[in-house]
Amino acid sequence: MPQSVLVIEDDAKIVNLLRLYLERDGYQVQSAGDGVSGLEALGRGRFDFVILDLMLPGLDGIEVCRRIRATSEVPILMLTARVDEVDKLLGLSLGADDYVTKPFSPREVVARVRTILRRTERETPARVLRRGPLEMDVDRHHVTVGGREVRLTRVEFRLLQALLESPERVYSRDALLNRIYAQHEVAVVDRAIDVHVGKLREKLGDDPAQPRFIMTVRGVGYKLL
């Protein structure tokens, strides 16, 4: 069965161009012209991938991404004409899988979609990782702390998985970036890791001043206690 892509973009020319190239590559494509319509489409049907414009009328792409990630781990590729680092860090911390900056090549977008889908399809190891009260079921994408469920974005999950798989190892920021963004085709600044760690600590109920789980190793990176 063909994989389905939802394009949330208000520029009809961009939508038609992406539809042409995606359908040529074998994907089924639906579109929505604003954030509210996009969320409604996601609520009505199942999609394998979302292409999301940052600058949308009404709800912007950051808020739409936030709401998608509250209930779904569907891969998200964001389209943006804004290259400001803060926007990128915020988008990545909310769970966007990749960025493409306008103007872009539609062939590049299709290649990104293909790469991200292949990567996410490979992430199916069937095992449980534990460290004290922290437990991760990798196959079910499920994390608990003392029995309390913790909802993580895809990037936060990969970050925690890396730390759990090698407890007490000190990871540099570059090492974590390479682990989290395997086969990533866009340069990501190392401060993105600090953003993700901050969000992860908040969700785990971990105090950086007196950490139970994630310790900062000054000048190096992070380790799991």
Structure description:
- The chain has 225 residues and is of the alpha/beta class.
- It has two domains: 4-122, Rossmann fold, CATH 3.40.50.2300; 128-224, Arc Repressor Mutant, subunit A (Orthogonal Bundle).
- Helices cover 41% and strands 22% of the residues.
- The protein has eight helices and twelve strands.
- The chain has helices spanning 12-24, 35-44, 61-69, 85-93, 106-122, 154-165, 173-180, 191-204; strands spanning 4-8, 28-32, 49-53, 76-80, 98-101, 128-131, 134-137, 142-145, 148-150, 171-172, 214-217, 221-224.
- Strands 2-1-3-4-5 form a five-stranded parallel beta sheet, with helices on both faces.
- Helix 1 (12-24) packs across helix 5 (106-122) and helix 6 crosses helix 8.
- The chain is elongated and about 50 Å long.
- The model is unreliable at 182-187 (pLDDT under 50).
Furnish the topology, listing elements before pairings.
Layout lengths: L3 E5 L3 H13 L3 E5 L2 H10 L4 E5 L7 H9 L6 E5 L4 H9 L4 E4 L4 H17 L5 E4 L2 E4 L4 E4 L2 E3 L3 H12 L5 E2 H8 L10 H14 L9 E4 L3 E4 L1
Parallel strand pairs: 1-2, 1-3, 3-4, 4-5
Antiparallel strand pairs: 6-7, 7-8, 8-9, 10-12, 11-12
Helix pairs in contact: 1-5, 2-3, 4-8, 6-8
